[in-house]
Amino acid sequence: MTKLETLQLKLTATRVRMGVIEATHGAGCGHPGGSLSAADVLTYLYFREMRIDPEQPQDPNRDRFVLSKGHCAPALYAALAERGFFPVADLPTLRHSNSYLQGHPNMNTVPGVDMSTGSLGQGVSAACGMALGAKQQGSDINVYTLLGDGEIDEGQCWEAFMFANHYKLDNLCIMIDVNGLQIDGATRDVMNSEPLDRKMDAFGFNTIVCNGNSFAELEQAFKMFDLSHGSGKPTCFLLRTIKGQGVSYMQNAVEWHGKAPNDEEYEKAMEELRAAHESLEKEIELNNG
């Protein structure tokens, strides 16, 4: 990946973060913290990794993505909108009673959403089923799913991990957003799941630890996933991220797990993100020159 391509991904991720703030502010509720930490991996997925077409959102040969941590729908919606599945202008209608963009993804109403999710722990099971179905049909479809590090408190996640290993789902990429915070506090205090790398190894995964807010490291992780095809081993990314990444006062602050910015907080967040966007635009212009 060239420097210019990396800068363009950073620019897109900044717009995704702006969409998260627009959506949660428009709703007056929602989950900005974990949405912001996941903005980079979703940007990489939708703009570089996955085989998808916004003009044909139901293409049977498309790759699939399941947002298992469904409360972080603002980030998924923002990425889908930036990719062209629906208008960016619709993001502030999040959670409004007459909006198709509800608080958790709905595959029946939102173009580009492959699975309805919300009850934590269940999305990864659906992703395993999709991956197994693709294998049984002899398809080259890849399936990606994103979980939270608080979500894996749920026992169903570990059942799904055993399933993925048993059925040798090497077309499955499970990504865990390890930002260290969940609704009740630090994950190490609520339910310590570490050492995650050793646990996922023991469950038979090709385990890759990387900085989930670095496009260079994400690129290497996805290359390793691609190389694992045919190995009979599912892949797990442990994405070390910062909750609230991109908005200074939300970073590593547990209170922003499930709280929307008020008008003043919205303006401060957007001011920071606009400044970052402008700086990236200037750097891209210099590199183009």
Automatic annotation (TrEMBL):
Gene3D superfamilies: 3.40.50.970. Residues 13-273 form the Transketolase N-terminal domain. It comes from the Bacteria. The keyword Ubl conjugation does not apply. Keywords: Thiamine pyrophosphate. It holds the Pfam family Transketolase_N. The keyword Kinase does not apply. InterPro entries: THDP-binding, Transketolase_N. Its cofactor is thiamine diphosphate. PANTHER family: TRANSKETOLASE N-TERMINAL SECTION-RELATED. Belongs to the transketolase family. This is Transketolase, thiamine diphosphate binding domain protein. It comes from Subdoligranulum variabile DSM 15176.
